[in-house]
Amino acid sequence: MTFQKLSLKEKVGYGFGDAAASMFWKLFSMYLMFFYTDIFGISATVVGTMFLVTRIWDASFDPFVGILADRTKSRWGKFRPYLLWMMIPFGILGVFMFSTPNLGPTGKIVYAYVTYSLMMMVYSLINVPYASLMGVMTSDGKQRTTLASYRMIFAFSGSLLVLAAAEPLVDIFSKMNGGAINLKMGWQYAAIVFALVAVAFFFICFSWTKEKVKPVVEKTSLKHDLKDLWANRPWFILLGAGVAVIFFNSIRDGAAIYYFKYYVTTQDAFQINSLKLTITLSSMYFVLGQAANILGVVLAIPVSSRIGKKGTFMTAMLLATVLSGFFYFIDRSNTTQIFVMQFLISLCAGITLPLIWSMYADAADYSEWKTKRRATGLIFSASSMSQKFGWTIGGALAGWLLGYYGFQANVVQTETAQNGIRMMLSFFPAIGTMLGVLFMFIYPLNETKMKEIGEDLNKLRK
User: 388 with 64: CB under 8 angstroms?
Assistant: First the structure.
């Protein structure tokens, strides 16, 4: 069989795309609720409802982006052009989201709804084509897993950059004018820095990648595409598994900064006096998690080569379930155990992510093999949909739980509120990991089946 080989430049270039997207995704998942409640000045319950309302629409928007991308024709291909067209709007809206205009309570809520909704739509317009690009860069299953691993390594590296730099940058920019600390200005200027870096990364991804895989049949109708998708059982299973994994990550990420500020209560880890900079425990916690994610991505390739993608995914999620339950019982003063559990749980999460991205490409091949028609963008919209739905459920639930347990911003929390925050880093995420195991248990595309599909498709494409 002749497969499309990938150069190191293509793999690295593809990775830069998710480094860019993940920078703002991590800003959203780790800091956005905190920014809205403690800086912007709207309640946690309002934020949770906003996440639910806007993300349901936004997730539903993803398949339309996939359909549009599948029918795009340009000198750059079907999917690469969206990286070029959407990178500037992506950066601008990212800054707007972390800006605080002088508005009243109602005006702030309207501003949050509008900027957040627009940003998520632009995120879909760049991320669905970007994810779909993997399916047309190579048709080799192992190369796809390698490509997905490059993607995840760069994604976590982009996240690591944000988590290591966000709070220090906010600290520096907040003190620029001298006098009183201006956190609103600090967050806005930090977002500008990340926006400029993200735009540059998207341009590198556009420039260094190529679309190589041609479908068996070039032209398909929307009716056939939707009919094929409805009959693609592996696609629905992956959608469910993806939602479960992102729910697990989003509720842990959203609650972490509250955990340190309001439960551990001691935030400062150490100071760099020469820079007048304070490094917080939450920053170190986030950075350690991203480093463990990267190690998990690296481990995914050799482990899945031995026991398969499905077995590796299920094992990692089962371990994450047990470790998450243990996290609840850690004493607030035992920072060593907190950090060890963060490392181990994040390691498990990192293992699953390249596998599920590689499986989306397998689901696209399965659909083409079964129907002789290919809709890569539509099928890969599941990846973005799962992110949005998982983040919707996790983010909305985080806001509602904070409200339910009596959370009040910038005050000492009651024992009930502190207990709720602990639950959001332990038992509630464990629900997501268990659901992920159940979905993957019924996933039908193992390595033997994909080898058969790959051989048949290669003959048809010739």
Answer: no
Asked if the structure places residue 1 within a domain, the reply is no
The reply to whether 2 falls in a domain is: no
* Residues lower than pLDDT 70 in the chain: 1-4, 141, 179, 215-222, 265-279, 374-376, 380, 382-384, 387, 461-462
Contacts 24+ apart (CB under 8 A), 194-197: 194/23, 194/24, 194/27, 194/94, 194/162, 194/166, 195/24, 195/90, 195/91, 195/92, 195/94, 195/95, 196/91, 197/20, 197/23, 197/161
CATH at 341: 1.20.1250.20
Distance CA 27, CA 285 (A): 15
pLDDT digits (tens, 9 = 90+) for 216-244: 555 566 677 777 777 888 888 988 898 89
Residue 114 belongs to domain spanning = 8-461
Q: Would 3 be classed as within a structural domain?
A: no
Nearest C-alpha neighbor of 82 from the set 98, 59, 65, 97: 65
What the block records as the tokens of 178 is 């001298």
Output the pLDDT for position 2: 44
Element (H, E) at 438: helix 427-441
Q: What is the pTM of this model?
A: 0.70
Number of domains present in the structure of the chain: 1
Two tokens, residue 195: 């926006």
Amino acid at 441: F
* Backbone Cα Rg of the chain: 22
The answer as to whether 69 is a domain residue is: yes
